[in-house]
Amino acid sequence: MERGKETDKRPFVSAVVTAAGASTRMGGTCKQLMLLRGMPVLARTLVALQQVPDIQEIVIVAREEEIPSFRRLCREHQIDKVSAIVPGGATRQQSAALGFAHISDEAQYVAVHDGARPLVRPERVEEAISAAVKTGAATLAVPVKDTIKLADREGQVQSTPDRRFLWSIQTPQVFSRPLYRKALDQAEREHRDYTDDCQLAEGIGAAVQLVPGDYDNIKITTPEDLRVAEEWLSQREGQSGMKGRGHKMRIGHGYDVHRLVEGRPLIVGGVAIPFDKGLLGHSDADVLAHAVSDALLGAAGLGDIGGMFPDDDPATLGADSLELLRQVTARLSRDGWHPVNIDATVIAQSPKMKPYISAMRDRLADACGIEADAVNVKATTEESLGFTGAGEGMAAHAVCLIERC
Prior knowledge:
The protein is α/β, with parallel strands linked by helices. Helix content is 33%, strand content 27%. The chain is elongated.
């Protein structure tokens, strides 16, 4: 058996996330992109892995047509440990091997995890890694609760294994790099295709250490699994609330104002509006997107948009404010919040906002990861009073409700 060497230095672990399945039991809808309490399944998986200090990089294996969506998901949720998103193979083993081929040369260990296991706890991943460092191969697992029967092809019971020795295997499954490479090579030579990576290790005679996992680390395969995961998350939320994480819902208010000047495009709610003036600002000065961003940040107790994106930062010069709003939403997600609904008002004497309201709703909703009917945008004038009434600028107010993920 190959064994990892224990050192004082943290091991370099590369995570390979397999997310290239066809989702046939979900009716062909990509389960990785389905929302689990307001956040995509894959995003929850990646956020959990990103929180593990030993994991230095993440390689995602995806279906070719879903790679652009996964890239966008990583940007929106600020998953900065993702080093590559690569096309998968015809089977899980082939997909894992393709992901393994793209890990860093520095990687000492590989942790293979199902993209559809979004409830894995970072501390359990650490425990699996620690076990693999000691033994060369380890996996999360839970004891089987039910009595298991072995049956023949006709459904007749042949035997009943002793339940005390039965475990349900989960992911991540963690291996030293040389061990995993050797196991893949042997499986390829023998034309074997296994359903999990532990079988690969078993195929070369390696012992795999079982590390106690959690029963809620389920793999989402069917619509029923998604509902079960929702319940598990609700229970976690309740337990976290008892430990001081605060209320499950919060409201926030945002306000922004910008001067109208010549020579600038007019962008409001992500929509370019034909007009002889535009709003002045460091970014595209989208007054509505800024008000919504401030409302969300305020509700989560995360300051304001000026604190998150300073107006002297060259990186945000001329920035698309909808992209900034996506980053705000991702910031909330990392703290366990997601938007429920938004109500906003644009204050402008001219031009008329009404023709563009529907498009504004759609774009704000998309940036916040919620349905369009959860966003309301209104527009009003100030009857020629004040700076907005005089056509000197525009303002916007927004209120929002956010909820614990």
